[in-house]
Amino acid sequence: xxxxxxxxxxxxxxxxxxxxxxxxxxxxxxxxxxxxxxxxxxxxxxxxxxxxxxxxxxxxxxxxxxxxxxxxxxxxxxxxxxxxxxxxxxxxxxxxxxxxxxxxxxxxxxxxxxxxx
Length: 117
What we know:
Elements (H helix, E strand, L loop, with lengths): L4 E4 L8 E10 H5 L3 E9 L6 E8 H11 L5 H18 L7 E3 L2 H13 L1
Parallel strand pairs: 4-5
Antiparallel strand pairs: 1-2, 2-3, 3-4
């Protein structure tokens, strides 16, 4: 999967969405949060382009890195966030929100997906 530019879906309404990675930065610099924020633009037919920011809690990333043995890197964060965005689109969970923080249990599940690939 190309984690920078990809399609996800179908959503519960049968639509396929396009997603484009925009940026990634520490949440502390923009909103005083201990997160890594990953921004994507998303769009589908008949809908305007929208932004979604997937926030990955830094303490959770450190814990997952220790437990999985995976190095904490920008690329790893982008992949984890992209998998969560794909989940959001396919389930419509939190799609009304611009900023979504991923629970640790879901991060661990995405790491298992990446480890299998």
